[in-house]
Design brief:
Layout: H1 2-30, H2 36-63, E1 66-67, E2 72-73, H3 97-115, H4 125-148, H5 153-156, H6 165-183, H7 199-218, H8 226-254, H9 259-273, H10 282-300, H11 302-306, H12 314-332, H13 350-381, H14 388-393, H15 395-400
Antiparallel strand pairs: 1-2
Helix pairs in contact: 1-2, 1-3, 1-7, 2-3, 2-4, 3-6, 4-6, 4-13, 6-12, 6-13, 7-8, 7-9, 8-9, 8-10, 9-10, 9-12, 10-12, 12-13
């Protein structure tokens, strides 16, 4: 089983990595043609810089033995050393520690990449480079240790988060809110039309995300077992329910059903099931997907009311979707699904529900607050925003010297 489980986790890692190019397509299609390459460049940059920092010391800070009462890991695994005897806190890990390391690396990559959708079309690439390094170390790494490491202070208090409702989804969503508040709105938003230039590209990217999400959730079981199967099934059910719910809401409100809305609904459903995939029943996963499809669609309109420019609705889909998923996990979790889990509020687990609320609050406050601080410092020193002429010209040519589309 050791070899089989290791193969399963490696397959999951490959699927999660494939999600980042899928995200680049999903995001790229929703932008204006002059900014497609800029967001793709940010996504591929995340694949590079996060990998190197993760191997050097970030992985150790997440999964090393805790210091300061579970606040951060130590430097035991710096340079990926001393992992042969297992990982701190994992008493019965029946999979290669290196497989866990590479699997979790892919989570860190896509979490940073998600933020690119919020800052699209007006952030300097040089600033995103520095931001990515600081954000990974000061925001992602601590929260990942608190929740994903068995020695983290939230994990020790009984917080459950199967595949990253806090670490990935809420973290990216509310970090995006913080940086776009500092960055400011795109020129002309919301009065000028900023329509997607290629819906087919976004649909293809959304399909890749759906495919990769099975690795994201089912791979988080860290083995070929009933929990992995359960998470796989729940992921499909929640995605389908989210798609149907968003379409229904859109048809009721706008009297039209859009392909981009359908794909967004599927993504919202998968976001919300991410923390709960291994801990709730299949029927509960449908309920979670339905709720996410409607609530995340409603949340998209909030940015217009509050006047913050989150270009591609990272806050509404990932921030709100992750929040909702953690909240409903606190209500709908059942030990029948996973004996190592817990019973939620609807099954007598009042204490567990309160613990999940604590994790929600801590993640929201820390990710928003620390990201806002990082963004303010960078804005005051190197500046976050491109020049007006570069923004008008488009970031592809002005920052990267290439264009996605050429005419002969």
């Amino acid at each position: 089983m050791y070899a089989t489980n290791t193969l399963w986790v490696l397959l999951g890692a490959a699927l999660v990595l494939f999600m980042t190019p899928g995200l680049a397509l999903f995001y790229g299609g929703m932008l204006r043609a002059k900014n497609v390459l800029s967001v793709m460049m940010q996504n591929f940059y995340a694949m590079g810089i996060v990998t190197v920092i993760w191997a050097l010391f970030a992985f150790s800070l997440v999964y090393g033995p805790s210091v300061a009462g579970g606040i951060i890991g130590n430097f035991k695994y710096v340079g990926l050393a001393k992992m042969a005897n297992g990982l701190a806190g994992f008493a019965h890990l029946n999979v290669s520690p290196s497989a866990v390391m590479i699997f979790q690396l892919m989570f860190a990559i896509i979490t940073l990449a998600l933020i690119s959708g919020g800052v699209a079309e007006r952030m300097k690439f040089s600033s995103f480079v520095v931001f990515g390094i600081l954000w990974l170390l000061l925001v992602y790494v601590p929260i990942a240790h608190w929740v994903f490491s068995p020695e983290g202070w939230l994990a020790k208090r009984g917080v459950l988060d199967f595949a990253g409702g806090t670490v990935v989804e809420m973290n990216s969503g509310f970090s995006t809110l913080a940086i776009v508040l500092v960055l400011g709105k795109r020129r002309g938003w919301p009065h000028e039309p900023m329509r997607p230039h290629s819906i087919p590209m976004s649909i293809l990217g959304g399909g890749i995300l759906w495919f990769g999400w099975f690795g994201f959730n089912a791979g988080s079981a860290l083995g070929v077992n009933s929990v992995a199967v359960h998470a796989f099934v729940n992921t499909q059910l929640a995605a389908a329910a989210g798609l149907i719910a968003w379409m229904t809401y859109e048809n009721f409100k706008e009297k039209v059903v859009t392909p981009l809305g359908a794909v967004s609904g599927a993504v919202a459903g998968m976001v919300a099931i991410t923390p709960a995939a291994g801990f709730v029943s299949p029927m509960s996963s449908i309920l979670i997907g339905l709720a996410a499809g409607v609530i995340c669609a409603l949340a998209v309109s909030v940015k217009y009311a509050l006047k913050y420019d989150d270009s591609l609705d990272v806050v509404a889909v990932h921030g709100v979707g992750g929040f909702l998923g953690m909240l409903l996990l606190g209500c709908l979790a059942e030990k029948v699904a996973d004996p190592a889990g817990a019973n939620g509020l609807f099954f007598g687990g009042t204490h567990f529900f309160l613990v999940e609320l604590m994790a929600i609050g801590v993640t929201l406050v820390y990710s928003f607050g620390m990201t806002y601080l990082i963004s303010k410092v960078l804005d005051k020193t190197m500046g976050l925003r491109v020049k007006q002429t570069d923004e008008d010209r488009g970031l592809d040519v002005s920052l990267h010297g290439e264009s996605a589309y050429t005419t002969n």
